[in-house]
Amino acid sequence: MSKVPVMEIFGPTIQGEGMVIGQKTMFVRTAGCDYSCAWCDSAFTWDGSGKGLIKQMQAEEIWQELVQLGGDGFSHVTLSGGNPALLKNLSHLVDFLKEKEIKIGLETQGSKWQDWFVDIDELTISPKPPSSKMNTDFDILDSIMQRLRDANQSNHISIKVVVFSDEDYDYAKKVHLRYSDIPFFLQVGNEDNKTTDNTQLVEQLLTKYEWLIDKTMLDHEFKNVKVLPQLHTYIWGNKRGV
Ligand SMILES: C[S@@+](CC[C@H](N)C(=O)[O-])C[C@H]1O[C@@H](n2cnc3c(N)ncnc32)[C@H](O)[C@@H]1O
Ligand SMILES: Nc1nc2[nH]cc(C(=O)O)c2c(=O)[nH]1
Ligand code: SF4
Ligand SMILES: [Mg+2]
């Protein structure tokens, strides 16, 4: 069977992060992750707390739900998770969306390869810095980046590293210098991904954003880099499904 575990489908909304920030898009969030980042803002996809929400779905069913939500008012779908790259069967959804002439974005951390990566229009690889408590396997990451380069997709791939600390920043720089031919994004870390106090959250995020900008601008080793907030958190805070 060609089903995949889906945690939530939502949109239309803006892509709040990375290379296509601001893009009107639908989201399909898959369940399950091979990581367990200390600060994961989508931990319900892997920590058991969202177990009851998981639906095993075929590409066609996912499409129906997307259309129910978005009508004919969308042309872009972002796949996120959890780690969608755990799912070989997502190839069916990717093929289905391509047939419908829908552009596809993908959010993944660079721990696993899938052949359907080459069919993604905007692919974001987001290796995890020390504060996540995860370890990057650079042999695997090297091979994924090489396969993506070989597939001649380099215009549509990017690396995005979330930064919480000086140590994370140093890690981000190491990643950037290792793959210096790939468009690179720094993203502000959200340290308080449970709070419902949006005023306080936004204030905190803005302070952090300024810190990250200041640091990067003074750094001559970071040249071709984009420094971004997680835009959706400035509008909707930690709300799910937006
Ligand atoms: C929830 S993850 C799902 C996709 C994939 N597992 C990954 O990590 O790339 C989507 C994006 O959110 C980022 N993210 C998760 N928690 C965050 C936080 N507390 N602050 C900022 N970004 C966060 C991740 O680094 C990743 O780039
Ligand atoms: N609006 C919005 N933009 C996003 N970009 C990446 C997201 C994710 O959780 O993967 C996300 C999300 O959950 N919402
Ligand atoms: S890799 Fe992504 S989904 Fe998995 S725990 Fe880390 S941030 Fe969360
Ligand atoms: Mg998110």
TrEMBL record:
It catalyses: 6-carboxy-5,6,7,8-tetrahydropterin + H(+) = 7-carboxy-7-carbaguanine + NH4(+). Substrate binds at I14, Q15, G16, R29, S80. [4Fe-4S] cluster binds at C33, C37, C40. Mg(2+) binds at S42. Keywords: 4Fe-4S, Iron, Iron-sulfur, Lyase, Magnesium, Metal-binding, Queuosine biosynthesis, S-adenosyl-L-methionine. Its cofactor is Mg(2+); S-adenosyl-L-methionine; [4Fe-4S] cluster. It comes from the Bacteria. It is an enzyme of class 4 (lyase). Pfam families: Radical_SAM. Binds 1 S-adenosyl-L-methionine per subunit. Binds 1 [4Fe-4S] cluster. The cluster is coordinated with 3 cysteines and an exchangeable S-adenosyl-L-methionine. S-adenosyl-L-methionine binds at W39, C40, D41, G82, S126, P127, K128. PROSITE patterns: RADICAL_SAM. InterPro entries: 7-CO-7-deazaguanine_synth-like, Aldolase_TIM, Deazaguanine_synth, rSAM, rSAM_sf. Residues 20-238 form the Radical SAM core domain. Pathway: Purine metabolism; 7-cyano-7-deazaguanine biosynthesis. Belongs to the radical SAM superfamily. 7-carboxy-7-deazaguanine synthase family. NCBIfam families: Bsubt_queE (TIGR03365). HAMAP family: QueE (MF_00917). Catalyzes the complex heterocyclic radical-mediated conversion of 6-carboxy-5,6,7,8-tetrahydropterin (CPH4) to 7-carboxy-7-deazaguanine (CDG), a step common to the biosynthetic pathways of all 7-deazapurine-containing compounds. Homodimer. This is 7-carboxy-7-deazaguanine synthase.
